């Protein structure tokens, strides 16, 4: 998703059944949720539970870009909806993975490196297809 300067929405999620996850990769903006403004920027992660009332705005001078993951939340009797999450990667404590040196192998690293290169190469090619998926997803959810 890309939101240009001055853009946004007071009702970005039309389906009350959908929970939302946003990973900001570039730019900055503001999400208003439960009467509070939450600034987001590159490196931010936001989770909003199903039926959340929220708004989004980009008051900066540059576009903000983020994957926007929408998923119909399946209610389970006896369990509450998860809370909203607003966090930035700088707020996380980094821990070394145990035995990481033992797991490094040239074959594994080559395979991982190739996958990342391939993803980056295909990103622009698939950008227009990805934009269409949002419309298709909305249509499919409304039919469910």
From TrEMBL:
SUPFAM superfamilies: RmlC-like cupins. InterPro entries: Cupin_2, RmlC-like_jellyroll, RmlC_Cupin_sf. It comes from the Bacteria. Residues 1-69 form the Cupin type-2 domain. It comes from Agrobacterium bohemicum. This is Cupin type-2 domain-containing protein.
């Amino acid at each position: 998703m890309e939101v240009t300067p001055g853009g946004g929405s007071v009702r970005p999620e039309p389906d009350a059944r959908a929970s939302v996850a946003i990973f900001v990769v570039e730019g900055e903006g503001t999400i208003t949720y439960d009467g509070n403004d939450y600034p987001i920027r590159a490196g931010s992660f936001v989770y909003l539970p199903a039926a959340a009332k929220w708004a989004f705005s980009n008051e900066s001078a540059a576009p903000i870009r983020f994957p926007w993951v929408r998923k119909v939340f399946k209610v389970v009797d006896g369990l509450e909806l998860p809370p909203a999450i607003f966090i930035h990667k700088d707020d996380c404590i980094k821990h070394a993975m145990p035995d990481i040196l033992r797991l490094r192998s040239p074959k594994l690293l080559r395979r991982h490196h190739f996958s990342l290169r391939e993803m980056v190469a295909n990103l622009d090619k698939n950008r227009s297809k990805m934009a269409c998926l949002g419309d298709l997803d909305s249509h499919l959810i409304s039919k469910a």
